[in-house]
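Subject: for your reference before the review

Hello V.,

The reviewers asked for a structural picture of the protein, and I figured it would be easier to keep everything in one thread rather than splitting it across files. Below is the amino acid sequence we used in the manuscript, unchanged from the supplementary table.
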Amino acid sequence: MIKEQEVRRRRRRRTPAEIQQIVSEFKSGELTQVEFCRRHDLVLSTLGRSLRQERDSSQARHRGLVAVELAVKKLDAQPAGCGLSVMVGSGRRIVVESEFDAATLQRLVQVLEGM
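And here is what came back from the structure prediction:
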C-alpha cells in the first residue's frame, strides 16, 4: 500500500506592518475573528495574539504617574477637607490630607514609581 502524504501549503510570513493593517481591518469590520481569519487566510492565533499585544501596549502607555503642579497654600485661605485626591486607572483612590507628612508621601511615590 502506498502512503498518501498530506501536502501542506506553506503560508508566507507577514511583516509587522501587514499584521497591523490586518488588525485594523478586523477592528473596523463586523466579522467574528473566525470568519475574518477564514476570509483573509489568517491563522486565528495570529489575529488573537496581535489583538492582545495591541491591547497590552495600549494599556502600558496609559500606566504610570502623571506630572502635577503643586499650589502654595495661602495663609488666609480656609483649610480644605482634602489636600490631594488621586484616582488611578484600576478604580483605586489615594487621598492625602491637607496636613500630610511630606517624607511619607515621598516614600509612597517612590514605591509607586517602582511598580
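For the response letter, the relevant points are probably these. The first helix runs from residue 16 to 28. The beta strands are 84-87, 93-96.

Happy to draft the paragraph if you're swamped.

O.
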